[in-house]
Amino acid sequence: MNGIHDMGGMQDMGPIQYEKNEPVFHAPWEGRVWAMARAVQATRKLRIGLRPPIESLPAVEYLRRSYYELWLTSLIERMVGSDLVSRSEIESGRPGEGTAKSKPPLSAAEAPAYGLTLASSRRNVQTAARFQMGQQVRARNINPAGHTRLPRYARGKFGTIDRIHGAYVFPDTSVYSLGDKPQYVYSVRFSARELWGDDAVPQDGVYIDMWDDYLEPA
Amino acid sequence: MILTASESLLVEKGLVDPAALDAIVDTFEHKVGPHNGARVVARAWIDAAYKQRLFANGTVAIAELGFCGKLDRDVRVVENTAKVHNLVVCTLCSCYPWHVIGLPPSWYKSAAYRSRAVIDPRGVLRELGTVLPDDVEVRVWDSTADQLTLVLPERPVGTEKLTEQELASLVTRDALVGAAKVELPQQTGGRR
Q1: What global pTM score does this model have?
Q2: Is residue B35 within 8 angstroms of chain A, CB to CB?
Q3: Domain end residue (candidates: A73, A92, A115)
Q4: What is the mean pLDDT of chain B?
């Protein structure tokens, strides 16, 4: 989706606010949201990815809400969309009548290790990579209404394959449980001048990891 | 507030154990953090073979030190030198190697940083206190996929006699994503 979240290359977001001695969480509720998101993930019953509910918020809402407010929004939408809770349960804060209480899948003993697990989405595929190291490629000009990891600022731009990572689950479909569609991911180098024009510093570049479906031969 | 309601609802439905939530919060507040990344950096500075393993497969090399699992998402380690400066960003959201170095700071997640790091990395670095010479090559890593990037900062001169532990104590959170250089304490007013 061509949303506000896809903000690479924008210039009107103001100066960077740097906070010295920043705590991990600014308030206890932020830690609770993060922990709930991790713990609910452990149920393995979420059928929607983390990002689509955030990316489909109206731009004004996206910018207005704090980081962990966005996480909470996402968690609620994912739970409702995956039939783990109902909208009315969220609104009332209490389980609907006759709901059987299940056993939480994540115990306190397992939580520290699970909390830090960031599982790879790498998959084995039998096919060879379509592109080779050093090959010129072009990022496709696609504008899907749903989730994609192809940033807008790179679309239609020419780059060079810098590294071949192997095959990974394709987020554009997997976040909606529409299939893993594993495919090669490449690190593609785009020169700053290709992305931003002749005023850019000639030797600088941006590296973007791209799934095969995002690329075409140059 | 919807949050309190959400937690008690999830507990009542048996989706989460509040003690598990406590443990996760504790882990992120007290266990994982930039100090892990600092130890990876210090080891790479003193052990050339480790450094090579780090570049070949960051996840496995970091797992050697116990800071992530071998099956976790790929950590790509890139090296800052006198000629090349790497900077990490996630323009689309907030991807960051949090399983190794803890959750990202606010500035990393901010719209200001995410939007401008790719189009004006030198200006962004200047704003964060690092001025790069014109002839340095800047490489910006936009974290769009499984690969999470950790920067191996340049080892400051004058640190030849320091121990691994002393070296680790110099490495700051921001240096691990290329937003700062590693400096000796006397070279800087306030460490980041």
Answers
A1: 0.96
A2: no
A3: A115
A4: 95
Q: Is residue A141 part of a domain?
A: yes
How many independent structural domains does chain A possess? 2
Instruction: Name residues whose C-beta falls within 8 Å of residue B17's C-beta, 6 or more positions apart in sequence.
Output: A39, A104, A106, A107, A108, A111, B11
> Mean per-residue pLDDT for A124-146?
97
pLDDT digits (tens, 9 = 90+) for B24-46: 999 999 999 999 999 999 999 99
Instruction: Let me know whether A128 and A200 are in one domain.
Output: yes
Q: Are A36 and B10 in contact (CB under 8 A)?
A: yes
H-only helix segments in chain B? 2-12, 18-26, 34-46, 48-56, 58-64, 98-101, 106-109, 111-116, 121-127, 164-170
Catalytic residue among B6, B8, B68, B94, which? B94
**Which backbone phi and psi does A210 adopt, to 5 degrees?**
-130, 135
Last residue of a domain, one of A88, A115, A142: A115
Residues pairing with A210 in the sheet: A186
- With contacts defined as CB-CB under 8 Å, which chain B residues touch A209? 142-147
- Is the domain of A40 the same as that of A99? yes
Domain that holds residue A100: 28-115
- The conformation of residue A17, written as its DSSP 8-state character, comes to -
